[in-house]
Amino acid sequence: MTLGARATTTTTTTTRPRRRAGVATRTTRTRTRTTRKGAKRRLERDADARCVAREANGRDADGEANADAEAEASSSIAVIENLDAATQEELETLYVACKEKYFTGAPAVSDEYFDALEAKLSYAGSGVVKKYPRCSVRGKAVYSDCVVDEAQMRALQTSYLAILALGTLFALVDFGDDLRAVFSVVLGDHGPNVPQFRVPIVGLVGLGLISRGLEKLNAASTGETLAMTGECPACHEDVYAFLPVRRGQARERTECHVCGRKIVFETQFERRETSPWRVTGKGRIYLVSEIADFSVDKSADDDA
Predict the structure, then answer these.
(1) DSSP conformational letter for 248
(2) What angle do CA 128, 132, 133 make, to 5 degrees?
(3) Residue 254: other Cβ atoms inside 10 A
(4) Alpha-carbon gap, residue 96 to 99, rounded angstroms
(5) Within 13 Å, how many C-alpha atoms sit on residue 213's CB side?
(6) How far is Cα 142 from Cα 287, in angstroms, rounded to an integer?
(7) pLDDT digits (tens, 9 = 90+) for 56-100
(8) SS3 at position 284
(9) What's the number of CA atoms in the CB half-sphere (13 Å) around residue 173?
(10) Rg, C-alpha atoms of the chain
(11) Of 12, 60, 111, 149, which is the most exposed, with the fewest CB atoms less than 10 Å away?
(12) Cα dist. 56→52, 62, 146, 180, 226 in Å?
């Protein structure tokens, strides 16, 4: 019985229920939609990130461009094309700005323009271009700058006017007596107070003074003679000289009234109608070398 029962025992197996085809299809579609939505969101986020980065880069570029423009505007120099039409203050401001730019290593103008600007200010007697005594290694010379001496020019004109007035006084006094004598003879007056004829020596001297005064006054007024002044390269005292202007340049050898050293004025002149003397000038004062300048100081060597 037991063996039969074992033999007739049936085994049962469990199987999973099959999914329906429609449910699997819907699940696949749902997953596909979710994947597409995630990819779209990622693309949108990437696009937004690129836009933000582009805007930031644009702002940075604009900021750098504005900064460069502002720096260039602040460092730019208004170059004056016509130097003759500008005032002295404008030329001085431009000269200082160009000089500062040159020392920074970024010159704003050419060397020819700067030299012309410096020459224009030198002819005008500006203080911004004044240079103190210095030496040239190449030329082995010590020199300083010289400009027009307006005080000496006014003093020169005053002295010529004084000579003219003195000559006029001499002529009037001396020739006045002769004129009274002539009128007395014409009128028939033979009284004791009638002046006698004589040689008008004083009057002739007065005429000479008048002629010389007019000649020199005209030369000073028309710019035939110009006073130049500067520092002595040896003792740094002010020296001056009166130079002729006919050739456009002059070279005058003189000596310092303080230290007695020989100096040479070398000057160039330029006609200018705005000047009181119709001419202006600039140049240099060179120190004449002496043997003592190249001798060795033995006392200094002994001290050393």
Answers:
(1) S
(2) 155
(3) 14
(4) 5
(5) 19
(6) 6
(7) 565 555 555 554 544 444 456 778 888 877 888 888 888 888 888
(8) strand
(9) 10
(10) 51
(11) 12
(12) 6, 10, 61, 106, 69
* Burial bucket for residue 144 (CB in 10 Å: 0-12, 13-18, 19+): buried
Element (H, E) at 251: strand 249-255
Token couple for 237: 């005292």
CA distance linking residue 265 with residue 229, whole number of Å: 9
Q: Who contacts 1 (Cβ-Cβ below 8 Å, separation ≥6)?
A: none
How far apart are the C-alpha atoms of 207 and 109, rounded to whole Å? Answer: 57
Q: Two tokens at 68? A: 């460069």
Task: Compute, in degrees rounded to 10, the torsion defined by CA atoms 205, 208, 210, 214.
Answer: -160
Q: Determine the number of helices (DSSP H) and then strands (DSSP E) in the chain.
A: 7, 7
The kind and range of the H/E element at 239 are strand 238-244
The structure's pTM equals: 0.57
Cα 166 to the center of its chain, rounded Å: 46
Is residue 146 within 8 A of residue 229, CB to CB? The reply is yes
Each residue of 111-147: pLDDT tens digit? Answer: 888 888 888 888 777 778 877 677 776 667 889 999 8
Tokens 């693309």 sit on residue: 43
